Amino acid sequence: MGFGHNNVLHKNHFRKDWQRHVRTWFDQPGRKLRRRTARKSRAALLGARPLQLLRPAVRGQTIRYNSKIREGRGFTLAELKEAGVGRKKALGMGVVVDHRRRNLSEEGRDLNVQRLKSYMERLIIFPRKAGKPKKGDSQGDDLKAETSRTQMALVDPYVHEAPRKITNEEREFQAYRTLRDSRAAARHEGKRKARQAKKEEEEANKKK
């Protein structure tokens, strides 16, 4: 690359002690092992509790991502109330609560209420004292049931139709023409109503 104008000529000598500034990653396998053992010890301390907290199913922001379902921050107070779960009780059962979130649609609220109810049906609450179970604690054979620590999967909200043959009526239906006609009808509706009212008024004056 040439130099223009009356600028200083560069004298790049590259004699810096560059080896002192190299970042190595020789401890990667050891870190991997430490993380794995830390996860095992944490899981052992949790006992039979789920490894992850229960979070609601929400839609992504903006028109680009709102067709997908993802995990939200926490359940709203309305969802907890409809599912019959108290706020303080939820915090002790691994359910995250977000008091700032609001429900903007009945479909989203019903989806999370159903998610909460299915979680409560599967939940096993061990009493603190084996001989003195409190209200809401699991009893009898429920305590001996097989437990799973995996998180509840997000339910697909779309109902997929089974494949079928296209009917002749559907084949002959002109979707584009129907849309254009409905748009035109909506656009000229006011003028047509005014014309009809004027016509009826003129006919009424003629009869007089």
Automatic annotation (TrEMBL):
Coiled coil: none
Source domain of life: Eukaryota
InterPro entries per UniProt: Ribosomal_eL13, Ribosomal_eL13_CS
Annotated keywords: Ribonucleoprotein, Ribosomal protein
Regions of compositional bias (Basic and acidic residues) in chain numbering: 134-147, 197-208
Keyword Repeat: no
Gene3D superfamilies linked to this entry: 1.20.5.110
Gene Ontology CC terms, in alphabetical order: cytosolic large ribosomal subunit
Cited Pfam families: Ribosomal_L13e (PF01294)
GO molecular function: RNA binding; structural constituent of ribosome
Family: Belongs to the eukaryotic ribosomal protein eL13 family.
Full protein name: 60S ribosomal protein L13
Species name: Serendipita vermifera MAFF 305830
